[in-house]
Each structure stands twice: as structure tokens, then as C-alpha cells.
Amino acid sequence: MVDLPDDTGAPSSNHGVYGISVAAELSGIAVQSLRLYERQGLVTPGRSDGGTRRYSADDLVRLRRISALVDAGVNLAGIARILSLEDDNAELSEANTDLRTANRSLRGARKSARSKKAKNPRNPSVQ
């Protein structure tokens, strides 16, 4: 996947642009906690060629979610499970939307084909 800027010239939301200190400041989470969350697999920032962590806008959203769960008293193992289920749910929702769109297209094509067939019942080339 290529991270192309949007129309405003800003990088895509999944493109890592923030260093760890900036991500800590923007998220309100200590640098050591960010490192811990990465070790636990809760967040996976991109890396520069030199190995420096680069957090994206999507990572910052995820960090805010982690922070809310920590504030609610959920432990890191619970947070990992919650995030995994939320990620799975988002993927299933996207797949469901895609399937509904494809279904609408197929129904439209079938309706169009039936309409053409009804208009030309003796023309075998229109099926």
C-alpha cells in the first residue's frame, strides 16, 4: 500500500509522521508507556529507515482508545483483547458493506436483464 498525501497535501492517516516524543505529547501518554504498549502489541508504529518509531494519526487514535480503557481500569491483557475484537468487528463491518454493495449491483443487473428480456421476449440474444 502506498501512503499518498490527500488533496490537502497531508499524509494519509496510516502514514507514520510523529516521533515518539511528539506522539507522547499529542496522546498525553508517557514515552515509557508508549514503549510498553508497543512491547505488548497494543500499537505498532511504523519505523524510519534508521529504526526510529513513527506514529501515524491512526496510531494516535488507537492510543487515545488505550488510554480510555486504562482509565476505565482495564488491564493490558484485557485491552489487547478488546482492541482485537474491535479490529475484527471493523473488518467484518467493512466486508459486510462491500457485500451489500455487490449485492445491490447484482440485483440491479438482474433487474435490468429481466427488463430487457421482457421488452424483447423473442430475441434470444438478450438474456
TrEMBL record:
<dbReference type="Pfam" id="PF13411">
    <property type="entry name" value="MerR_1"/>
</dbReference>
<feature type="region of interest" description="Disordered">
    <location>
        <begin position="94"/>
        <end position="127"/>
    </location>
</feature>
<feature type="compositionally biased region" description="Polar residues">
    <location>
        <begin position="94"/>
        <end position="103"/>
    </location>
</feature>
<dbReference type="GO" id="GO:0003700">
    <property type="term" value="F:DNA-binding transcription factor activity"/>
</dbReference>
<feature type="compositionally biased region" description="Basic residues">
    <location>
        <begin position="107"/>
        <end position="120"/>
    </location>
</feature>
<dbReference type="InterPro" id="IPR009061">
    <property type="entry name" value="DNA-bd_dom_put_sf"/>
</dbReference>
<protein>
    <submittedName>
        <fullName>DNA-binding transcriptional regulator, MerR family</fullName>
    </submittedName>
</protein>
<keyword id="KW-0238">DNA-binding</keyword>
<feature type="domain" description="HTH merR-type">
    <location>
        <begin position="17"/>
        <end position="85"/>
    </location>
</feature>
<dbReference type="InterPro" id="IPR000551">
    <property type="entry name" value="MerR-type_HTH_dom"/>
</dbReference>
<dbReference type="GO" id="GO:0003677">
    <property type="term" value="F:DNA binding"/>
</dbReference>
<dbReference type="InterPro" id="IPR047057">
    <property type="entry name" value="MerR_fam"/>
</dbReference>
